[in-house]
Amino acid sequence: MTHYICVGDSRFPWSFRIWKGKGSKSVTLLALDLIRTVPADLTQGREVWVYADGGFDAAVFIRSVHACGFVCVVGTRKNRQTTERKPLSSYPFRTRTIQLPAVSHQGESLPITFSWVWLKRDNAWEKRYILCTRALSPQNLARIGKRRWKAGRPHGVPLCPRQSRASSRLLNTASICIALLKAPR
After folding, report:
1. Which of the residues in the chain have pLDDT under 50?
2. How many Cα atoms sit within 13 Å of 95 on the Cβ side?
3. Strand, helix or coil for residue 60
4. Which end of the chain has fewer CB atoms surrounding its CB within 10 Å, N or C?
């Protein structure tokens, strides 16, 4: 698993962890360890977005990233259940706020915005679902999702915002990208 820091159009490998298989720490916990290695001096005064592929959609990951004060954008599967016991694929509207089981912050259920995008893979259209801890418009969330899970890349490799498709072809591992944005005004 590789962890990248993104600033503007630049992407820097920050650290990596090797998952040792069954009986060791889960991939999600390894990812959280990587996120915690980013020094506070680097994130101070900036809006931090954590982009992760679908393997990191566990409740503990979303909850922990939000608890760090970061915005979490993660891909997820279509049969992910909401607190209403409905799969995401059963919602007819593109973007809405949902509640997920076990995703809460300080005892309150954390509202999650979800949407989907259509991507062409192997000459077939595929629907990809996106979860975000920030309330975004349908257009913004779909735009972020399309940039993150573009066709023609190795499965599950996330992109940083504004990253070129050519540079993403070099990656073939599960990765997490932390985007450091300018301070909100």
Report:
1. 151-173
2. 18
3. helix
4. C
Integer Cα distance of 110 and 108 in angstroms: 6
pLDDT attached to residue 166 = 37
Considering Cα of 115, then 182, then 162, then 166, what sign does the dihedral take?
A: negative
**DSSP-based three-state secondary structure for 101:** coil
122: exposed, middle or buried (C-beta count within 10 Å: 0-12, 13-18, 19+)? exposed
Total number of domains constituting the chain: 1
Pairwise CA distance, residues 127 & 109, whole Å: 27
Which residues, in sequence order, are bridge partners of residue 47? 181
The number of CA neighbours under 13 Å toward the Cβ of 180 is 18
Find out whether 172 and 154 touch, Cβ atoms under 8 Å: yes
**pTM (2 d.p.):** 0.76
Dist. CA 75–CA 53, nearest whole Å: 5
Q: How far is CA 84 from CA 98, 101, 102, in A?
A: 9, 9, 13
Kindly give, in sequence order, each residue whose CB lies less than 8 Å from that of residue 34, ignoring residues fewer than 6 positions away: 1, 3, 14, 15, 16, 17, 176
Q: Tally Cβ neighbours within 10 Å of residue 181.
A: 14
The predicted structure's pLDDT at residue 162: 44
Domain that holds residue 101: 2-181
